[in-house]
Design goal:
Largest sheet: 7 strands, mixed
Number of strands: 25
Structural class: alpha+beta
Number of helices: 18
Strand content: 15-25%
Helix content: 25-40%
Radius of gyration: 23 Å
């Protein structure tokens, strides 16, 4: 099994609806309590438990109220890793042992942040009984996979507190992305005394017993309405934190976000796709500045391989191939995203850099050969019929009805229904869940053939590729792809490899996933545009991190 480095965020439930995150306030004074930002999210977080963080909105909040060894900051559109909870570190000559010296930091209740609390976090994340979806992300730690799978002991886990402020991490193999990965929320320290008091389940949404070691603390949460953060005065660098209050309001409709921006209630937002045109008009106002932002999300079309879907058809590779080849990304991008996203045929974002090599240029289009071979409707329909014959099914395409599961208004659903019906001669029924809970239940019960999703991760390419390992806890959300060949290739990354060797494996993994098994259909990498009120200063937008980093932001 692989060491899966995914994280930082999973986009679930909203199909391919644009994810908006905005912040701001009507207040313009830069003093005292009027230093307030009002942000919006499309949904409430499902958890405040750092070890169980799954979604982008949870990452946005938890990365500001909690803190790990490092964090991601952005300068001139480029990410950089900075030490936060750690004040320094050393690395052994073989690259397998890191020793971190912690800052003199405190939790919001005044107690010290200790090395043992980091150890507790790793042990809790990897404890098999906790069944945390991202546990396999930590398999680069020595002994992590064995402990998580019940084949080893926690005493052999390569994380140790040498003293109260010294943390040692021993790796299973040299892992060049360790420092950037330590900025991921799931590796933040935890307070077992607080968690054990209320239990894992209650801890996920408990506000009263939560404690925080980040620049802000969560003080109130009214479900489906508002979350309020206040400046954490015990934060080690509190003197440089200027904001006093941050309010998150749940806003599901993009039109409402636009109205809030127009009325001056938001100071900044991140928009993509068709919404950019709406906000560009608003950006002509002298009150706003705007800038482009490279995206690190990959939008994908999921085919149900858990049970093959409502008719069991997606168990067949030729059926999946026919559907994959029926998707024209240029038309999709124009119809759904106003032509603003970057087309992709790979799971890893096209703009990713691997030791100076552009990933998109190196890997290319894995589907190129298949697209040339099945370049007409007739050929794609013939391919679909071959798959049906192999399954012992009728080849009368007009009798096939595929269910596309979505939530709310979804331009992708409209486009896919029309495109697939036209290209493959089958019927597509759009099944709209009435709410998020219903969507999740229908998805988990496999009441679908197709759905759309997206994945946002760390800068390491394997954070995107390891999602598709059969041992990954997130495969239940991404169609249940299962390939021993892919798993074996992914396992080869668990070693001391050169950048060139890793690139070779990445390309092999992409080809296996996208063009041999047709396990997923990568669509686009969203490109965002950031709109910021001129009164807001030092608001950072990272590529591989939370939507906004506002730790040291302020308002004039």
């Amino acid at each position: 099994m692989q060491k899966n480095h995914l994280v930082t965020a999973l986009i679930t439930g909203l199909a391919l609806a644009t994810i908006l995150v905005a912040c701001g306030s009507k207040n313009t004074s830069a003093s005292g309590s009027r230093q307030t930002l009002n942000l919006s999210e499309t949904d409430d977080p499902t958890t405040l438990d750092v070890n169980d963080m799954r979604n982008s909105n949870e990452n946005d909040i938890l990365s500001e109220v909690q803190e790990g060894l490092t964090t991601i900051e952005s300068t001139n559109g480029k990410d950089k890793v900075v030490l936060t909870g750690a004040k320094s570190y050393t690395k052994s000559a073989d690259g397998l042992t890191y020793t971190f010296k912690l800052r003199d930091a405190k939790w919001s209740d005044g107690k010290a942040v200790t090395a043992q609390q980091y150890v507790d976090s790793f042990q809790r994340l990897l404890k098999k009984e906790n069944a945390f979806a991202q546990a396999s992300s930590a398999y680069f730690i020595k002994g992590a996979e064995a402990y998580n799978t019940g084949k080893g002991s926690v005493v052999d886990l390569g994380v140790k507190a040498l003293d109260a402020r010294t943390l040692q991490i021993r790796l299973a193999y040299a892992y060049p992305s360790l420092l950037s990965d330590m900025a991921t929320v799931i590796y933040y320290p935890v307070r077992l005394d607080k968690i054990n008091k209320v239990g894992n389940k209650k801890w996920k949404t408990d506000v009263q017993d939560q404690v925080f070691n980040g620049p802000f603390k969560l003080t109130s949460w009214k479900k489906d309405d508002k979350i309020t953060l206040k400046k954490n005065k015990t934060y080690w660098n509190a003197k440089k934190v200027k904001l006093q209050t941050v309010n998150y309001t749940t806003v599901k409709k993009p039109s409402t976000v636009l109205s809030l921006m127009q009325s001056g209630q938001l100071d900044a937002l991140s928009a993509s796709g068709k919404l950019i045109s709406d906000f560009n008009q608003l950006a002509k106002s002298s009150k706003l500045v705007s800038r482009k932002q490279n995206g690190s999300t990959t939008k994908v079309l999921i085919m149900n391989q858990h049970n093959g879907g409502t008719q069991g058809l997606f168990k067949n590779v030729k059926v999946r191939e026919a559907f994959s080849l029926s998707i024209d990304r240029t038309s999709y991008n124009k119809a759904v995203n106003d032509g603003r996203d970057k087309l992709t045929y790979t799971m890893v974002p096209q703009s990713s850099d691997v030791s100076g090599t552009n990933y998109g240029e190196y890997v290319g289009n894995p589907l190129k050969t298949a697209q040339a071979q099945y370049n007409t409707k007739a050929k794609r329909q013939a391919l679909l019929k071959e798959g049906l014959q192999e399954l012992g099914k009728s080849t009368d395409l007009t009798k096939l009805n595929f269910v596309y599961l979505t939530l709310g208004s979804d331009d992708t659903a409209t486009w896919l229904k029309q495109t697939i019906q036209e290209n493959l001669g089958v019927k597509v029924t759009v099944k709209t869940a009435p709410d998020t809970a219903s969507f999740i239940q229908m998805r988990n019960d496999n009441q679908y053939d197709l759905l759309a999703n997206g994945w946002l991760a760390t800068a390491d390419p394997n954070a995107y590729l390891s999602l598709w390992n059969s041992g990954n806890g997130f495969q239940k959300f991404f169609g249940g792809y299962n390939s021993k060949t892919f798993d074996d290739l992914d396992d080869q990354l668990n070693g001391n490899l050169t950048a060139a060797q890793r690139l070779t494996l990445y390309k092999q993994l992409e080809n296996q996933l996208v063009a041999k098994d047709f396990g997923v259909v990568p669509l686009t990498n969203p490109q965002s545009r950031i709109y910021i009120n001129k009164s807001v200063k030092n608001l950072q937008t990272t590529v591989f991190g939370g939507t906004f980093n506002y730790t040291y932001a302020s308002k004039e």
